Automatic annotation (TrEMBL):
Listed InterPro entries: Thioredoxin-like_fold (IPR012336), Thioredoxin-like_sf (IPR036249), Thioredoxin_domain (IPR013766)
Domain of life: Bacteria
Biased composition, class Low complexity, residue ranges: 54-86
Protein name, entry field: DsbA family protein
Thioredoxin domain location: 75-274
Native organism taxonomy: Bacteria, Pseudomonadati, Pseudomonadota, Alphaproteobacteria, Hyphomicrobiales
Species annotation: Mycoplana ramosa
Amino acid sequence: MSLSEMSLLKRLMGGVAVTALAVTLAACSDEKKETASAPEPKPAATESAETKPADTATTAATAPAASETAQAPAAQSTPAAPAVKAEVPAADGDVDMAKVLEPGPLPEMAIGDANAPVTIVEYMSMTCPHCATFHNETFEPIKQKYVDTGKVRFIVREFPFDPRAAAAFMLARCAPTEQYFPMISMLFKQQEQWAAAENGREALLQMSKLAGFTQESFEACLTNQKLLDDVNAVRERGAKEFGIAATPTFLINGQRYSGGMSVDTMSALIDSKL
């Protein structure tokens, strides 16, 4: 975690108490709107041994009680199973990476060497729980392992599914450029506090103040119609030109992958392209 991100998060945890509703967020795309209901577990079958009372007269007159018990053979140690290597996920389709990297409506938000052998473009929505999971659990290890070592260039692009997600993206864009990644990281870590809040605008205002916004700059950002139009244009271009239909979706060296990934899975995918 960068120092700027840690600073934002400390200020957030120290000064904000935003009432979060216990609401499960909707799935990130039309493809994920239906959630499969797990079948109700069957009650565990329990076996009870029924003990019949012994016939004392017969017991006394017949064979003596057995006194020997069979000794179980000593358990033999077995070698530990080798670690299972993560499988490389299958691509959803191919994209023209040269076209993907053409300038769009907004300046590119990217980290890493522009000449890195692997380029990852992530389309995400700020209210998407799968995106939050990826950024809270996978992004930082991947950044340390591949971005910081010059192997990967990582680009983030906006794909908001609702007005609250669009507002969060706009605020990140209104922050100083070097604060873009720390701010989206902060918002993902505290996603339930603002995305599920009854008054999302007020929740975003309090978080934005901790990131240096004033009431006036907050209002000016969210009433910037051109910025909103540009954020929506990034989403529309992704959908029409590159087949983005769900978040998160990753375009990696000319191939499209939908859905979140663990550190091991994304590492295996990146390694396959190095």
